[in-house]
């Protein structure tokens, strides 16, 4: 059976058996007033919320490759601001992880894989000459700690961030769930507030 067929068959049974009822206790507003930016790594899907003692409805969780913010006016920052201004989040957590696939990623390899899977070299060439720097866009990081610090700095220094918003940086270990503090948003606000 194809993946989509499996999902649709399961979903039909889920709805008919009212499996959704246990999730009806939440709303679109995060109970713990948190917005989290973390990596899309599959190991973190259930581990991260458990390691943070979060249940369904506690936090807004935004995922991307590497938990990286690259632009102060990109989609990730927009989602953070919407969570803070419209969805009652009051704190921001940037959470990277050890053994991240974005560590040391080589954009040349990614482009080679694109070409191997059918993207024409001409498309890559056209993008490069259209002002799109694929190699910068596809670059990961050498240090997860530095990446978390950089993303935290983008959020903390954003001109639209509500004043006195704690922005925390953490690293989680994908095997144990252990959290390592990179930067404490409360301490930062006390020192710079």
From TrEMBL:
Classification via SMART domains: Pro_CA
EC number: 4.2.1.1
Pfam families registered for this protein in UniProt: Pro_CA
SUPFAM superfamilies named among the record's database cross-references: beta-carbonic anhydrase, cab (SSF53056)
Parts of the chain that traverse the membrane: none
Cofactor notes: Binds 1 zinc ion per subunit.
Cofactor requirements of the protein: Zn(2+)
CDD domains: beta_CA_cladeD
Catalytic activity as recorded in UniProt: hydrogencarbonate + H(+) = CO2 + H2O
Residues annotated to bind Zn(2+): 39, 41, 97, 100
Molecular function GO labels: carbonate dehydratase activity; zinc ion binding
Keywords: Metal-binding, Zinc
PANTHER family: CARBON DISULFIDE HYDROLASE, CARBONIC ANHYDRASE
Similarity-based family: Belongs to the beta-class carbonic anhydrase family.
The name this protein goes by in its record: carbonic anhydrase
Biological source species: Cohnella herbarum
Highest classification ranks of the organism: Bacteria, Bacillati, Bacillota, Bacilli, Bacillales
């Amino acid at each position: 059976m194809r993946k989509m067929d499996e999902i649709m068959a399961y979903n039909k049974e889920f709805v008919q058996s009212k499996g959704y009822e246990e999730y009806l206790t939440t709303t679109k507003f995060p109970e713990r007033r948190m917005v989290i930016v973390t990596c899309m790594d599959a190991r973190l899907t259930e581990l991260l919320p458990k390691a943070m003692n979060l249940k369904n409805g506690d936090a807004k969780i935004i995922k991307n490759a590497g938990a990286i913010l690259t632009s102060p006016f990109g989609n990730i920052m927009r989602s953070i601001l919407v969570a803070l201004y419209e969805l009652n989040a009051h704190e921001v957590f940037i959470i990277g992880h050890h053994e991240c696939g974005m560590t040391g990623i080589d954009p040349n390899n990614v482009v080679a894989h694109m070409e191997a899977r059918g993207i024409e070299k001409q498309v890559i060439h056209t993008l490069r000459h259209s002002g799109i720097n694929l190699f910068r866009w596809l670059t990961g990081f050498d240090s997860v700690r530095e990446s978390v610090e950089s993303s935290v700095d983008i959020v903390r220094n954003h001109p639209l961030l509500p004043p006195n918003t704690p922005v925390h940086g953490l690293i989680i270990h994908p095997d144990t769930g252990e959290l390592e503090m990179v930067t404490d948003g409360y301490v930062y606000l006390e020192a710079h507030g």
